[in-house]
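Working notes for the structural subgroup meeting. M.R. asked for a predicted model of this chain before we commit to crystallization trials. I am recording the input and output together here so anyone reviewing the notebook later can reproduce the run.

Input as submitted:
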Amino acid sequence: MTTKTVLVCGAGGFIGGHLVKRLKREGHWVRGVDLKMNEYSETEADDFAIGDLRDQSFVRSVIDRRFDEVYQLAADMGGAGYIFTGENDADIMHNSATINLNVLDICHKRNIKRVFYSSSACMYPEHNQLDPDNPNCAEDSAYPANPDSEYGWEKLFSERLYLAYNRNHGMQCRIARYHNIFGPEGTWDGGKEKAPAAMCRKVAAALDGGAIDVWGDGLQTRSFLYVDECVEGTVRLLRSDFEGPVNIGSDEMISINGLARMVIDIADKNIGINNIPGPLGVRGRNSDNRLIKERLGWAPNQPLRTGMEVTYRWISEQARLGHNKRAA
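Returned structure, recorded in token form:
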């Protein structure tokens, strides 16, 4: 395999950190960029630049050569408690759009062709996700557009931005719509964590005979993709001749109460569920994997429980260590 020079924007984040590890295993030279280093592990990047991708001069300083591959994962994001309250909408839209405008413009000026962009299933229309048992997340269902959050609207705008650069400037950008990625070394507390991590944290902290709080009636459905499969799909897509957009997600749908029960069973605890009011997002969402199978000859297939077992062990250990530090 030829050694490539690769740039990972968002390398201090959860998916970006795992992506860097994968690229280094392949033997490539990797520069990571983020506002911060990864919180849970040392970066394996050859070079790591800390700075703000909303700043054009900083973007020019890190995209200082013709990289063979650029992975643009940097964004203002979080779980339902951050995205769906409405209190962060202006920041989410401004920050993420500015990052994408800057990175894509400088990549074009450096004659970089291969750029991966991580969009989100949050851009799918709300009206196709009202039935928790039969959501429609086929790629061609995106229009007429009606995302359920400003986060989703920004993702949709940025998809069109990358595709416009393909048409107008001969770039080879690739777009994936991620569906709820989870796994070790991801945010698990503080308000920006997603459902799998939140469930693991709550169950790890709960005592036998107690209960955990779950937002909504718990009948809302989602699918969750383990991070290693996300990285595999990401790399495959960027190196393919298919521009997307395409779903990268699991098609194993589960209710949120079902996810809670799965984690409780993994922990082998006797714990109840309290369904309480809280931010929810759409009623149902599941990855439609027909197109990725057709165009890439591949789709995620790891059972949800396999990844949840690994994730629960990691989060319960983090919680234990954090408690000990605070106690000290």
